[in-house]
Amino acid sequence: MEMKVFDLDSARETLVLIKPIVEEINIKREELAQCYARLEEEEDDLERMYLRSHVEDLDSEIRSLFQKIEALGGVIKGIDPILVDFLSFHKNRYIWLCWKEGEDTIMYWHELDEGFAGRKPIDLLEEDL
Question: Which key words tag this protein in UniProt (predicted)?
Answer without folding.
Answer: Coiled coil
